[in-house]
Fold these 2 entries.
Entry 1:
Amino acid sequence: SATAAPSVKHYMRLDVAEYKKRQFLSGLALFLCLLLAGCANDDGPLANVDEVVTPAAEVCQANPDTLERRSVIRVIDGDTLRLNGGDNLRLVGVNTAEIGRDGAPDEPLAQAARTALQKLLGPRKEVWLRPAEEHRDRYDRLLAYAFDASGNSLSGQLIASGLGFHVAIAPNLGLVGCLAASERDARQKGLGIWAEPGLMPRPMAALPHGSAGFHLIRDRVTRVSFKDNGWWVQLGGKLGVKIGSSDQHRFKRRELRALEGTTVEVRGWLIPMQGRWWMLNMDHPSMLQPAAERGG
């Protein structure tokens, strides 16, 4: 019989007040840094949810006997599940298109990702979990590495099928290498999101005023600076990408400095600031890459 891993239901919750404090201080840091520097819904022809791809890399797999099995009562969207017991589970390592709410339309492939995730759960609607290093996000959702009955990563299968973007948010970096490889393969094949014009990387000048949420940005690096309040990579004269002190050990100053004047692609959640500036927090190098290394 399976040996149950420690329950994930009792992990500590993120201190929301502390998060908001950090968010305010990060915004203030961006303002000061930039001031000193002068600075139709179509799921697409390749979205076949009956052919969800399993990543070949073994590190995208786990032994189900070492994981905690949980029942799912609802698939909220392509990267979020409602578990029996009340927890909302956010899959680590993947971000899928948003399902429209309050009258807003669905983003391209949002329903395809949701349908694919439902299929991956199987007829018993079960998921196998390995606790993430950080157990809750700021919305109090449970964070975990999620697998199917065969031990294949749900995030990996969505990404390999072109139905989700790989994201690396510290400290939950356990599958970074495998998920990044799965995305490279899906992107080279032009699967799903990588054939969807509405989800392609865009320059900062193309962003509507006040845009927020997850974006892929491809633009020229106008400045790189190393300050007490963080390391900063500025794109298109409008975006301040901040690498905080706790994440700087994953980056090399020499490589960041060499990006100045080149075109790069970054991804993450944009925070709009006053004066048509934006900020983006960067945890891992896989979220910031030279554009020449990116296909599509």
Note: Helices lie at 16-37, 110-120, 154-160, 176-189, 253-257.
Entry 2:
Amino acid sequence: AKAAKVPRRPVATICHIPLGRGRVTLGDMFSRPLLIALGLLTAAACGDDDPATRDVTLRFAAVAGDDEASCGSVHEDVGPGADTLTVTDLRFFVSNAALITADGRELPIRFDGEGGLSLDDVAVIDFEDGTGRCTAGDASMQSAVSGSVEDVDAVGLRFDVGVPFERNHSDVVFAESPLNRSSLFWNWNGGYKFMRIEGTVNDDGAMIMHLGSTACAPEGDPNPSACANPNRPEVVFDAFDADTDTITLDLEALFAGLDLAPADDGLDARCQAGFDDGDCAGIFEALGLPFGDTEA
């Protein structure tokens, strides 16, 4: 029998501590959406007609409660069933990132593509290293993405978790990196897996969480015109210090509403973004996404 639910912990909170230790964890996972950023570096002028820009680096981390989460890490007491989770995959896309000024103006961040794990408007955050049980990806990893932004004072940050629609329904075979990863792709109609988090549970079960767009129309068409369920969580931090804050995804908070252990019928915990998938309900709530008749 499933254990009784326990009160949910926030997925994100904000704290301010010295550079290198600062951390912005997700609070309410996605009533304020999800993730993280850090760093302003140098300023440079682009030309007489272009605004001056500066370098910026968004740094990400993953934890389960107070413990760092990474490929192969083991975490006890996760979810209402207090299960043991061993991480075997942990990757997600971020896109349309922008710093926010005090008057609410968004300053788009243009990623520089360094390391081959980002394009100008989308990057993959990858904590999976292709070793041990982590076999879905490869050795390439990325926990920080750099780029440039207009050189204006900013107080906040926003970004989407996912791949922009105009990039989401292309041929993965011919796509530029990081959109050429078949393990992060469903099909042309559905597009990419915006988040892929997997693990083993209590040594005898498995957990799969894949987030992406669903109900894309026309159904089966490789070039859909729209998706009824975009499923791109928006992350917004109204108060964000780019010099001291890191964006942290808390798996303990993400899975606070999901029993990870196999159900009585032997089925593993599995959320693949379908509205008929009961295991998605708590995860979507944590991400601030609507699920079935439940609004965000």
Note: The two ends are 29 Å apart (CA to CA).
